[in-house]
Design brief:
Layout lengths: L2 H12 L25 H33 L1 H31 L18 H10 L4 H19 L8 E6 L4 H13 L3 E5 L2 H11 L3 E6 L1 H10 L6 E5 L14 H12 L2
Parallel strand pairs: 1-2, 1-3, 3-4
């Protein structure tokens, strides 16, 4: 990178307040992914690859320790094998029901309504696999959000919020902010501006909502979804960042209104 480019990058970073998840951003708008619109297929592909790797790894471990288990006791070996098969069967069954729910838009995950539909346990592996294929964390995060939203819309079809919280970023373009606030006033929603992840967590703790609509970049949304109460349904709306992160961001207003109407059952 030339000295001039480095100076330009520093100026680009100075003209905005970077959020928690963007502190390591270089400021290079030329290499920045400005328009991200991934489908659900990206995350689902890496999810099933992750499941395959986990199952294969567990059976490989069993293969190596099985002789030792048999020396201890055949019953111990059979018990471990039985538990492994039960876990594998359950994971495969859940994954297939997840896929059916996404494909058909019908709820095959009825048994998860009370405990939520969070899949955070798989994210670290999915990110690692995606990076191996040169796919950015933001693109994967965008796909994760699409899957999360699809699951909320399908599994919470009869849910009606009585304490809806809408979390907005501080970096909206002025005209977008005005339109967003107009929509939230129309439906009499609780709205807070979150300046970062820690700020969002404090707001959620204070309000104690029964549902959340979050608007932010993919990084902040995934972080917030991971930290949130597992029983709270969350619809996440990624912002668009034509000028890079944390400056003059935009969203589709129709997506926000649709999410509000769904949560409130208007």
């Amino acid at each position: 990178m030339s000295e001039k480019q480095e100076m330009d990058n520093q100026e680009t970073k100075k003209d905005r307040l970077l959020g928690d998840e963007w502190q390591g951003w270089s400021g290079d708008l030329l290499e920045y992914e400005k328009d991200i619109n991934e489908g659900k297929r990206l995350f689902l592909t890496f999810y099933f690859l992750t499941v395959f790797i986990i199952i294969s790894f567990m059976f490989l471990i069993y293969y190596f320790i099985s002789p030792r288990l048999k020396e201890i006791n055949v019953i111990v070996n059979n018990t471990v094998l039985f538990l492994l098969i039960i876990f594998t069967t359950g994971l495969i069954l859940f994954s297939l029901l997840l896929l059916l729910t996404i494909i058909t838009n019908k709820n095959f995950l009825f048994f998860r309504k009370k405990t939520g539909l969070h899949l955070e346990w798989v994210y670290p592996v999915v990110y690692k696999l995606a990076s191996f294929f040169k796919i950015s964390k933001d693109r994967v995060g965008n796909s994760i959000i699409k899957v999360n939203n699809a699951l909320v819309y399908v599994t919470k079809d009869k849910f009606a919020s009585t304490n809806l919280l809408i979390l907005l970023p501080r970096c909206f373009e002025k005209t977008v902010r005005e339109k967003v606030l107009e929509i939230t006033r129309k439906y009499n929603c609780q709205v807070f501006i979150a300046t970062g992840g820690s700020s969002a967590r404090q707001i959620v703790k204070k309000v104690n909502p029964d549902a959340i609509i979050g608007v932010a970049c993919e990084r902040d949304l995934i972080s917030g979804m991971t930290d949130s109460n597992k029983n709270i349904p969350i619809i996440a709306i990624p912002n668009r960042r034509p000028n890079g992160p944390c400056k003059d961001t935009k969203i589709d207003i129709d997506d926000l209104e649709r999410a509000i109407r769904f949560m409130l059952k208007k």
